[in-house]
Amino acid sequence: MFNSLDTLLIKVASRCNLDCSYCYVYQGQDQNWIDQPKRISTETIDSICKSIDQVTTFQNKGFAVVLHGGEPLLLGSVKLEEILSKLRIVLPNYEKYPIAIQTNGILLNDEIIEICSHYKTSISVSLDGVKKSNDIARFTHDGQSSFQKVINGIDKLIAHPDKDFLFSGTLSVIQPTTSPIENYEYLKSIGSKSIDVLLQDGNHTYLPKNKENFESLEYGTWLGELLEHYLNDSNPVPIRFFDDLIKIILGGNPDKEGKGENFYGILVIETNGDIRKNDTLRATFNGADYFENSPNINVPNALLDILRSNEYKEASKIQKPTCEECIKCEINFICGGGMPLSRWSKEKNFDNPSIYCQDHKHYIYKLLDLMEIK
Ligand code: SF4
């Protein structure tokens, strides 16, 4: 049986030019990145494109390709053009097969932006809000603020005539000690078209930063405040985190995993070609995102074999919570137990509610109230 693919995340560079304190890749449990080639090779790019071509003949539904890292722009402009041009040969329909780059924005320059425009590749920039929010965790390797360098990159992006397509928005990790409204208004003011927020990685064994315990509401309060401001904003910029919840409540489907009851097929390709499960699982234990027998894209049919495998199907099932508390929970169909990595504990594996359970309840019930759904 063929299990569908929704997102293929390609790690084109395994190092980063920043040293963010919350990074799941470099500060997480899995330190495998040290053994990965710094950049993806031409051989691996060719194998990926060949495999993608095969997938499109088996799967009618489109899927997204995301260039990720480390910092993907460490790939350099020549190699970036190589991978994007080859990807667009096998994926010419850019609406059915969106290609995106998730970058810290520092290496954005006119040449790179032009290449992205030419190959219809959108750019999302990681920025946690105003300078004082961004300066909590996003440091350079010598411990300095990365803020102005990121803003310089965004300025170049919004100066491009194709900016409406190119700059897809910003991705901010929540810093619960900051003002969500100040961050949101700032990101709007710099031209972010979509403001996505992410809960910090953490679980029952490794508590998220600034979360005191299972009952505490630091993140829920922050999100609740942002939600109220967002719904009262007469000129809002979409916040996917909330829009996905609203879609589910209104009977639709979210765009991303971690909410609701839908399964998302996500695979990751490492710079050496290894095929992995969703790499956010690395915030749990070393090896959490490995498939058995370490499949590699450079082996003929490896991607198709994984998509047909039981292991891939089982890996998607982890998205659904299994603990009694979630199963009995009246908002499970909205919350979906949150991201699997936040349900993990050393003792009970993924058989727990999310460490963010009370936070999820706080902003979801607030949303239901604001939507006057009881
Ligand atoms: S709110 Fe808590 S109990 Fe309910 S589904 Fe989410 S994590 Fe599970």
TrEMBL record:
Matching Gene3D superfamilies: Aldolase class I (3.20.20.70)
Swiss-Prot/TrEMBL keywords: 4Fe-4S, Iron, Iron-sulfur, Metal-binding, S-adenosyl-L-methionine
Stretches that traverse the bilayer: none
PROSITE patterns assigned: MOAA_NIFB_PQQE (PS01305), RADICAL_SAM (PS51918)
Occurrences of domain Radical SAM core (ranges): 2-253
Keyword check for Iron: yes
Cofactor(s), by name: [4Fe-4S] cluster
UniProt GO molecular function: 4 iron, 4 sulfur cluster binding; metal ion binding; oxidoreductase activity
PANTHER family given in the database record: ANAEROBIC SULFATASE-MATURATING ENZYME HOMOLOG ASLB-RELATED (PTHR43273), RADICAL SAM DOMAIN PROTEIN (PTHR43273:SF8)
Annotated protein name in UniProt: Radical SAM core domain-containing protein
Organism of this sequence: Acinetobacter bohemicus
